[in-house]
Amino acid sequence: MATLRQKALMKVQGRPKVAAVAPSLKISDYFGSQVFGLKEMQETLASPVFKKVSTAIEKGTKIDMSTADEVATAVKSWALGKGATHYTHWFQPLTGSTAEKHDTFFDAMSGMEKFKGSALVQQEPDASSFPSGGIRTTFEARGYTAWDPSSPIFIFDQTLCIPTIFVSFTGEALDFKTPLIRSTESINNAAVDICQYFDRNVKKVTPSLGVEQEYFVIDRALYATRPDLVMAGRTVFGHNPARGQQLDDHYFGSIPSRVKEYMKDFEIEALKLGIPVSTRHNEVAPGQFEVAPLFEDINKATDHNLLLMDVMEKVAEKHGLKVLFHEKPFAGLNGSGKHNNWSLITDTGVNLFQPSNSARENLQFLCFLVATIKAVYKNADLLRASIASAGNDFRLGANEAPPAIISIFLGSTLTGILDELEKNGNIKIEKGDNMYMKLGISKIPEIILDNTDRNRTSPFAFTGNKFEFRAVGSSANPAGPMTALNVIVADVLKELKKDIDKEIDSGKEKKLAIVDVLRKYIKESKKIRFEGDGYSEEWEKEAEKRGLSNLKSTAESLDVLLSKQVTDLYKRHNVLNEKELHARHEIRLENYVMKVQIESRVMGDLALNHIIPTAILYQNKLIVNANGLKGLGLDHRAAIDTIEEISKHIEALKSNVSNMTEARKRVNKVEDITEKAKLYSSDVKDAYFDKIRYAVDKLELVVDDEYWPLVKYREMLFLK
Ligand code: ADP
Ligand code: MG
């Protein structure tokens, strides 16, 4: 009888390729066709109503109920015209993905399709099952979602989706979007203040975000046969294929044709939703790929990233594929990240991280650059915590992965400029001197963009006109790390402004005051800068000497969220109060515990129910064989050796699985969640996962391929 694995492999053989069909050859014909954006509003709303809404979007002001009613009516007829039957508030609870609860437009009482302003503006999802870290139980039983007009309404799967925030009735944030929006305001205020030194026309600064999304794709039938992938999102067992990524031939190689059709197809759907997907390519590991849209304002870009992941999941079904967003689905191969490209852009159209031909603008550029460096230096642990998750632990800080040390890469040009600035600390600049020349900052221009060296090993790199936070995990909601980044930079920009003004007040010329403060900041935060190989062992040692943190696991890294430094920081910027932070801390630890618990159970089940029985079956066959050889008076040592080897691994498996189960029982009794998470990390995961995996992967090499129950790496990773 064929095993599940063999049946699945046959299914893959016979699977037809699904071709992607675009509605038109020209993307402009269908880009944003499923979005109720400004253009659609302008076309369908009376002009005073449109004016109110666009002001609300721009300035974040409140929309009154009569305006909301008008918008609701317009959006309803637009949506019905596009075939939508339902509507939902679309929000981002702390579970990580997005949530929705669909209501039909059809009102049976009146026999008509209905949609009122009140339904657009606010809803009360029955949300008691969303994590709140105790907030809802202690304060208010209910939470509500409220329309975020700054992110456009769209239709997905015949459902009108209204992007919303999710808060408790007492106003505490229960989602990712609320603090992101608050942090955007905070950095806007702080950045505008700094811009005033250089250009009084700047009234608004918006963080922008471009998300490079990495992912793996495997055949859906193969996915279905791996309980570990289904339950935990990653393979807990599997020996490396003979050909992994050593050859480096997958990267930028030609895309396998089934995957190419899949990519084209999800891009079409994404483009209809107004997601400006622009690049696609293979990634380093076999079966790994990347998609990146053009950058947008941070709130929209975040919504679009989450929506894109949804779209990718749905479209994959049609192609008989499964997309994996886990940070490390396959041991021994590259993990998947979500590079968050971040910059600050003014309403006058200037990217504040873009060096220019004008020396004056370069001084402004240096303010933002140096402030960011200092912010990362001061708050490296918070940034580390912002990317911590059970999945990302396998990608950062594990034995085969880069360390979890936060550092900044600037490239040689900028490093030279900052070193120069620091070194020339004592240059006396007289009035009338060309200060920019003397400090070497008149020549930042052109050099940089064409000259950005690439350092792929840095967790946080300056890449010409933006910072790239690369340590973010592929499955993460970008809002978490981006909120942290906005807040820490806002905080240092505020400090910078205060320090500069103090110098100016004491009689220093403005430019000199700025340069002096920057010099001080450069010196203070130098330790966070690292240009070398971030994956090397020397760096771990060097970082330790520098006093930089190397927090290897989620359990260790989240404590900082309760520190005075972080609670004060988030409070100062009205982003999260102490209660909200505590709740988040708790939810993330609970989530971590749950994930490790599931993995541990899956491992135990697979080992006991799949691996050991198979190994014994094969061993019995070998015993018969050995006896036969012996009966014939032939040499049967080879068979005996293999029998013994199998026994050894089975013994190891049995005892480790049973000890792990005991450990889990012990740890489950621990009440304190911080303690529990730490114990899950050390006493369950670190103590047993590798040992159990080692035995299983060895058995995979020994046991007859015919018998092996789990689809192997080489079968999953090389799609045609
Ligand atoms: P790579 O890092 O692979 O060289 P790109 O330069 O193409 O990639 O950019 C990667 C991502 O960064 C894209 O989503 C792009 O739109 C985005 N990006 C480019 N400029 C900015 C910017 N000023 N702010 C934020 N994101 C940006
Ligand atoms: Mg990049």
Automatic annotation (TrEMBL):
Residues 643-670 form a coiled coil. It comes from Cyclobacterium jeungdonense. Residues 176-611 form the GS catalytic domain. Belongs to the glutamine synthetase family. InterPro entries: Gln-synt_C, Gln_synt_N, Gln_synth/guanido_kin_cat_dom, Gln_synth_cat_dom, Gln_synth_gly_rich_site, GS_Type-3, GSIII_N. Residues 85-171 form the GS beta-grasp domain. PANTHER family: GLUTAMINE SYNTHETASE (PTHR42974), TYPE-3 GLUTAMINE SYNTHETASE (PTHR42974:SF1). Keywords: Coiled coil. This is Glutamine synthetase III. SUPFAM superfamilies: Glutamine synthetase/guanido kinase. Pfam families: Gln-synt_C (PF00120), Gln-synt_C-ter (PF18318), GSIII_N (PF12437). The keyword NADP does not apply.
